[in-house]
Every structure is written in C-alpha cells, then in structure tokens.
C-alpha cells in the first residue's frame, strides 16, 4: 500500500497553520512581504500540490525568490513544531498501519512534500519502523513534477507489480490509475474539492475502514 501523507495519515493543519503564520511574520520582518497574511484556506486548499504551485496560489504576485524563501521558512518552522510535539495523526492511523504491517503488507509513502518534512512527520510520529526501508518517497527528494512520476519511480525501484494507492486528492487518484493501481479515496480531511475522489475505486470515511475494505 502506498499512502499519501497530508490529509490521509496526518492532520496537516495541526502542524502547518502555526508554521504558516510564523512564515509570514518572518517574511514581513525580512521585508519580503507586505500586508496581511493570506487566509488559511489559501494554503489548505492547495494541500496535495507541489509547494511551488501552492505559493503561486497563496502569493500570486510575489517573486519566485520569495516563494523559495517561504519554502525554507515553512519547513524550518514545521520541523521545529514536530520536535516540540505539534502535529496529530488521524484517529486510528497508527493501529491500522500496525495491523496492515502484521499482515505482511508492505507500506510506502508518496507525497508531494519536501523530504525533511515527510520523513520528519513519520519519524516524530513513531511510524518509521512500519514502512519499508527507503520507502518514504517525496517530490522534494526525487525532484518529480507530478505524483504520477513519483509513484512510478517507487514501483520501479522496489519491483512492485500490484499495490493500492491511498490518498485524499485528485493527484492521488491520477497517480494510482496512471500506474495501474487500485485507488482508495480518503474522504475525511475536508481539503478536497467537490468531485475530486469520483474516480477512486473505493472511498473511506475513517482510516480504520481500510482494514475492512481489505477484508472485502
């Protein structure tokens, strides 16, 4: 099983939003941004996208150099938050992953996030032993332009011929189907747009339903 991270395993907003506000405070302090911090919904609605695309949505008139500085700051504040105990998994995630692992299912991550963020979340949440060695894939580490490409690299590198793609955004549905995978849409985060998961082969309202779906 290949999992998206934000909005699938991890309640992103519990870590992201404090870091988001700190990022804009610092950008203003450095003279790189003026005005009020954009609404939280501006970044929440972009979850699942590459960071460069998120900043274009959040700060459409800012220069690319400001976007890259925002990358650095957001990551630094998120890592600091993780170390301080911020960030929460969705209910039942840890237990369900342990159950899947106990059944012999190999677990992977495929996220459009930055490398240190993705690996940091898994490490600080104590989930690292449950995933395959070298199985945490991020667009930040592999330099992919789409999740389709990221998942393809994962499948090729690990010699995987059959898998489930589990995620909450249309990019996860696209990545799964483009690579011939069974797609499970997670419909509980609230970040998705209407109809995003219509192409999924199955949808779940709670993460714990994944084990029930596997039985079925």
Question: Topology of this protein?
Answer:
Elements: E1 2-3, E2 10-11, H1 13-29, H2 40-44, H3 51-58, H4 64-83, E3 88-89, H5 93-102, E4 108-111, H6 115-124, E5 136-138, H7 139-142, H8 147-158, E6 164-167, H9 170-178, E7 182-186, E8 202-204, H10 209-215
Parallel strand pairs: 1-4, 1-6, 4-5, 6-7, 7-8
Antiparallel strand pairs: 2-3
Q: How would you summarize this macromolecular structure in one to three sentences?
A:
With 216 residues, this protein is of the alpha/beta class. Helices cover 47% and strands 12% of the residues. It has ten helices and eight strands.
Could you please say which CATH topology of the largest domain applies here? Rossmann fold
In this structure, how is the largest beta sheet organized?
A: 6 strands, parallel
Task: Please give the CATH architecture of the largest domain.
Answer: 3-Layer(aba) Sandwich
Total number of distinct structural domains: 2
Q: How helix-rich are the residues, as a percent range?
A: 40-55%
Strand order of the largest sheet: 5-4-1-6-7-8
Which CATH class of the largest domain?
Answer: Alpha Beta
As a percent range, the share of strand residues is 5-15%
Cα-to-Cα separation, first versus last residue: 16 Å
Shape from CA axes? globular
Compressed to H and E, one letter per element, the order equals: EEHHHHEHEHEHHEHEEH
Integer average pLDDT: 95
What ranges have pLDDT less than 50 throughout 5 or more consecutive residues? Answer: none
Question: How many whole angstroms does the radius of gyration measure?
Answer: 17 Å
InterPro entries: HAD-like_hydrolase_sf, HAD-like_sf, HAD_2, HAD_sf, PGP-like_dom2
Pfam families: HAD_2
Protein name: HAD hydrolase-like protein
Organism: Paenibacillus gyeongsangnamensis
């Amino acid at each position: 099983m290949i999992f998206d991270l934000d909005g699938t395993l991890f309640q992103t907003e519990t870590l992201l939003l404090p870091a988001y506000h700190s990022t804009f405070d610092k950008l203003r302090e450095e003279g790189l941004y003026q005005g009020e911090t954009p609404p939280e919904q501006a970044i929440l609605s972009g979850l699942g996208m590459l960071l460069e695309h998120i900043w274009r949505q959040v700060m459409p008139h800012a220069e690319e150099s400001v976007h890259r500085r925002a990358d650095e700051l957001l990551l630094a504040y998120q890592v600091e938050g993780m170390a301080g105990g911020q960030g929460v998994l969705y209910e039942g995630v840890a237990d369900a992953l342990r159950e899947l692992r106990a059944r012999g299912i190999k677990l992977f991550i495929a996220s459009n996030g930055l490398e240190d963020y993705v690996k940091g979340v898994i490490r600080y949440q104590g989930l690292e032993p449950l995933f395959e060695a070298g199985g945490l894939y991020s667009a930040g580490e592999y330099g992919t332009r789409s999740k389709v490409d990221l998942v393809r690299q994962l499948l090729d590198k690990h010699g995987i011929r059959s898998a489930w793609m589990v995620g909450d955004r249309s990019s996860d549905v696209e990545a799964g189907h483009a690579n011939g995978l069974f797609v499970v849409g997670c419909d509980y985060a609230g970040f998705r747009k209407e109809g995003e998961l219509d192409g999924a082969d199955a949808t779940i309202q709670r993460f714990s339903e994944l084990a029930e779906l596997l039985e079925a």
